[in-house]
Specification:
This protein is mostly beta strands. It has one domain. The strands form three sheets. The chain has a three-stranded parallel beta sheet with strand order 1-2-5, covered by helices on one side. The N and C termini lie far apart (29 Å).
Amino acid sequence: MVSTASASTWIVDDDGSGNFTKIQTAISGSSIGDEIIVRGGTYHENLVVDRSVMLVGDRNPVVDGSGANEPVINIRHLP
């Protein structure tokens, strides 16, 4: 029997009503091919995208990097 993996959709909402309150936590907990919907709000974090996921903004989210010497969004090369 062959099983097929299916992509999941995750919701990030800084007010706690989604699956996650932090974008990076959602990225780290996601699998390749997942969709991460980021709801409106301000997210004080720096992101490392190290897998192939779809990030979708809903209601104009803002990523305000928390580290002055770090890129706000770092997309790592995927092997």
